[in-house]
Design brief:
494 residues; 24 helices; single chain; two-stranded antiparallel ribbon; mainly alpha; globular
Amino acid sequence: MHAGESVVLGFQHYIMTLGMTVLIPTVLVPEMGGGDAEKAKVIQCLLFVSGASTFLQTWFGTRLPTVVVGSFSYIIPIMSIVHAKRYRTYTDPYERFTHTIRGIQGALIASGCFHVVMGFLGLWRGAVRFLSPLSVVPYVTYTGIGLYHLGFPMLTNCVEVGLPALIVMVFISQYLNPIISPKRPIYDRFAVLFTTAIVWLFAQLLTSTGVYNNKSESTQNSCRTDRSGLISGSPWIYLPFMPFQWGRPTFDLGEALAMIAASFVSLFESTGTFYAAARYASGTPVPPHVISRGTGWVGVATFLSGITGSVTGCTASVENAGLMALTRAGSRRIIQISAGFMIFFSVFGKFGAIFASIPLPIIAALNCVFFGYVISAGLDFLQFCNLNSFRTKFVLGFSFFLGISIPQYFTEYYHVKHQVGWLNDMICVIFMSHTTVAAFVAFVLDITLSRDDEEARKDCGLPWWEKFSVYSADHRNDEFYKLPCKLNELFPAL
């Protein structure tokens, strides 16, 4: 692959990180009392943390081509902190913003420490080593399904922009190449750039011609290309890696426990993304100790988020794993180039704000394609299971159903009967996660339903799976997961 092509592919991955990077601060910062300037700074901080953490993940973590981004799983405990009674006494919006973000920082630092302990001390490895292809199927599948609200529901916030983006994306990525038959895979590989440029220009034309002038405020915020406030609010040059720039973090035990529950959910999400990324990067199934090491570095990313004040914790990016499937380019170099773009645009804010102002319905349309690829990565593990076994059918069917049903109940409970309190937040954030519920149900059923029987082991694919659990069992593990330095000697638990 040419260097220029790698740069363009890396820029595409950067574009996809903007969806979550812009969405979370856009939701949270106004609730905290911050304006456009504060929102721009938080986005730049989160973008910098994502870039630095992506470098760390590809160098020392799983060494898979995975991007680290902000996690939506932290929204519930963060919103509880935002609406805490002790911050309502501040009448000045900026003062309320600074005190609120300091409370969030303290909870994120505690959450990051929990994540680091689970990963680097090998505690998460002890759980992951009991997985099999059968339990991985709902695990990875729901890693994609669980983010459905960031797909078509977010697209419908501006149908006249989002729906054309979805149609153009599917046409360019799936139909255009067979029609034109170029010598190189161009249109499917660079479909993100083509789609974003075409629909962004279309949205600009709609904005310029005054189509949205008499629309509601929410419609204008979603559809117009001049409503983000990021270009005017961003400084030309800003150093987002300054620690504790909003002041000394404050700590509250209940808020920290609620944030740790969100970090627990992030463990599940990151692990599912690692398996999907390995599948599309032509890697072997990720060994348990590599998964544990990777989640440890995700914990470092959350800790950095707490230090810099980037509002939310981190996780491995699902949409970027799907983009890797579309481009069929599972290269660490491409991901590291995208991390370079993240750091560059986090420092030079005006330039980064131009791309960050892409209407979110366009990103939601792209998510519909990429989340679908991650779902199919989970279903791909069915080939190693015996689908004629009724045990297999029960584990799959039961975990898939509860993975939808239980989070739906807790979602309705949270919105209708929401009660403020850290214990309530802990329960809701765990059981509202489709990935966590589906993976946990499949995991428990798989290890308790007669796995000692040799026939049952074959049904769930363990004879094929177990050889990838340690380095020495398969020589291909070294190619993808061997560290470039002797970290294993420094930290034996890795």
